Amino acid sequence: MLAGCATAATARSAPKPAPDPVNLLLDQADAAFDQDQLTTPADQNAFDLYQRALELSPGNSRALTGISNIVEQYLSWAIGNTQRGNHRRARHYASKAQNIDPEHPSIEAVFRMINDREDAITRAFPWTR
After folding, report:
1. pTM (predicted TM-score)
2. Scanning 6, 60, 101, 117, which has its CA 20 to 30 A from the CA of 83?
3. What's the pLDDT score for residue 92?
4. Based on the number of CB atoms within 10 Å of its own CB, is 53 exposed (0-12), middle (13-18) or buried (19 or more)?
5. How far is CA 85 from CA 4, 48, 75, 78, in A?
6. What percent of the chain has pLDDT over 90?
7. 57-64 contacts, C-beta under 8 A, 24 or more apart
8. How far apart are CA 70 and CA 124, in angstroms?
9. Which of 3-12, 35-44, 86-95, 106-115 has the lowest mean pLDDT?
10. Is the dihedral of CA 44, 47, 51, 53 positive or negative?
11. Closest CA relative to residue 109, chosen from 93, 94, 88, 87
12. Do residues 110 and 78 make contact, with C-beta atoms less than 8 angstroms apart?
């Protein structure tokens, strides 16, 4: 009976294994994403943390999905700013998305939408002197 007690006590005091560094980075990246720290502050943003996870675990699906989500978030912000008429800010967010993934299939369409909205305003309010 005492042997069973000793085993339980030993199990409780046994050192826990070190946490997996990739999962720690991914958890930190997810938290940074949730706080809209997508590419800032330097070295402690979601993009950098996902990249560091990929260095340790190339092809990691969670890191790749996280980076894709960053691009999608920037494009969403670009679209929202375009709809509100803030084209300069929209272009800024679309450029951030493009810097992360220049091949993303929606980037060209978002830039075209921004340009079309700017052109529509110019046509609606022609400059006269």
Report:
1. 0.80
2. 101
3. 98
4. buried
5. 71, 31, 15, 10
6. 75
7. 57/22, 60/22, 60/26, 62/26, 63/26, 63/29
8. 34
9. 3-12
10. positive
11. 94
12. yes
Residues 99 and 75: beta-carbon distance below 8 Å = no
76/109 Cα distance (integer angstroms): 12
CA distance 124 to 33: 39
Q: What distance in Å separates the CA atoms of residue 94 and residue 4, rounded to the nearest whole number?
A: 63
Percent of the chain scoring above 70 in pLDDT = 83
The Cα 70–Cα 101 span in angstroms is: 10
**pLDDT per residue as tens digits for the range 10-45:** 556 667 777 899 999 999 999 999 999 999 999 899
- Angle value at C-alpha 80, between 65 and 116, nearest 5 degrees: 110
| Token digits of residue 125 | 């309010």
CB 97 within 8 A of CB 78: yes
